[in-house]
Amino acid sequence: MNPSTSPPDIEPGLNPAEIDAMLDRGVAAAVKYAREHSPFYRRELAGFPEIRGVGDLHLLPITTKHQVSEHNEQFWCVGREKLVDLCTTSGTTGIPTLYPITQADLDRLGHNEFLCFRRVGLSPADLVILAVTIDKCFMAGLAYFEGLRRLGATVVRVGAGSPAMLLSMIERLGPSAVVSVPSFLKRVAAYASQQGCDLAQSTVRKLICIGEPVRNSDWSLTPLGAQISSAWGAQVFSTYGITELAASLCECQAGKGGHLHPQLLHIEILDDAGHPVPDGREGQLVATTIGVQAMPLIRFATGDVTFMTRQPCDCGLSTPRIGPILGRKGQAMKIKGTTVYPAAVQRVLQGLESVIDFLMIATAPTALSDELEILIAWRGDPADAANIVRERLRGELKVCPDVRLATLQEIQSLGDSRELRKQRVFLDRRNHRNLPTG
Ligand SMILES: [Zn+2]
Asked: Distance from the CA of 307 to the center of ligand 1, in angstroms?
């Protein structure tokens, strides 16, 4: 696809062979375009063969987050005069990485979200609250706005700051859906119940969740997903997206994984050695953007661990789907012989009603074993809190980390990060690694 033309407007109800053909064309064009226009790829891919489709892609090297951060503007394919917006990603060097977008890129982002919102059953009749960050150089908020505008729905940009404002807008406007981060939706539910307001009686029927998984690998809701679904009396939809993909994968009504848009993105799931894993098996998500004009990425290693399925979905689409993000590569901890991801610990903690906030701190006293300390801000009687948390973790994950009660202030100041748009929940202090990992 030529990045300057709009992507196809209809979600393809294609069969697997047609999807493969679409991916082949998209990947071949994306690599050709990046080689012609990006100084980084011109240099990096010199000497590598021509890529005719997905089957050739393994011949090219992986693009790492570190490279994108280190050679940031070398990736750009257009001059600054073509840009309509500059987003940032968290970066790996402490300085946020710039992610530029052109008008065509903005259209592409909007189209991606249009497909997602339509798939969850929204229409021009819907009034949708965006309870997400829409400034701070954040791409997603902008993309959601564009997608809903294309759909013809009415958008109310409440933002993610104030449960009181969200609640008041729900009462005044009667929205049918809210787009937000699950932990914020949980906070709003707690606030509403303090105010004597039953959210399940509100008009909101769909919660489009971003940033944190709300499903387990078997598609059941995580404790957090189940809590918000029940508190809001609403259907929960999981989505996955990161800035560098300039796309998101969103569930349909069947709730069995995020659908890929083959006209916008190609994904691979690779093991630690860089080989593809069979469908259903977990590995790192590696993505090639299709149709991106300003900063296309070829075989970009996201660091996110998930799995893919190509089984036809209950909704009738045959597009590949990804499972929930199970963790981040490099973050897996080995605690007394058991491997566990911070994301799994997070899921358990988020499921405990009395946990107001938490922070995980990993250290590595020896090369063979990691240790995890969890700081907990607890609502109610603290006497048995540490034991309750430890027992729950032992029961669900077979690990028994140190648990210490802390104040909300202590947790928030330790987790505070200038370069991230959100509070950190995991500090990695192994091997002096202290990367901003969210
Ligand atoms: Zn589906």
From this structure: 16
| Strand ranges (E), 37-138 | 83-89, 97-102, 127-131
Per-residue pLDDT tens digits for 341-377:
898 899 899 888 889 899 999 998 887 889 999 999 9
Whole-structure pTM value: 0.87
Compute the distance from residue 258 Cα to the ligand 1 centre, in Å: 8
The confidence score (pLDDT) of residue 1 equals 45
| DSSP secondary structure letters along 2-44 | -TTSPPPSS-----HHHHHHHHHHHHHHHHHHHHHH-HHHHHH
> What pLDDT is recorded for position 347?
87
218 Cα: distance to centroid of ligand 1 (angstroms)? 15
Q: How many CB atoms lie within 10 A of CB 357?
A: 22
CA of 62 to the centre of ligand 1 (A): 29
- Secondary structure (3-state) at 405: strand
Helices assigned H by DSSP within 123-181: 139-151, 163-173
CA–CA gap between residue 48 and residue 32 (Å, rounded): 12
Asked if 113 and 248 touch (Cβ cutoff 8 Å), the reply is yes
How far apart are the C-alpha atoms of 104 and 84, rounded to whole Å? 9
What would the two tokens of residue 20 be? 């493969």
Q: How many residues does the chain have?
A: 438
pLDDT at 235: 98
Query: What's the CA-to-centroid distance between 119 and ligand 1, angstroms?
Result: 8
**Beta strand pairing call for 127-131 and 177-180:** parallel
State the distance from the centre of ligand 1 to the C-alpha of 411, rounded, in angstroms. Answer: 39
CA 112 – ligand 1 centroid, Å: 15
Q: How far is C-alpha 195 from the geometric centre of its chain's CA atoms?
A: 31
CA 268 centroid distance within chain: 16
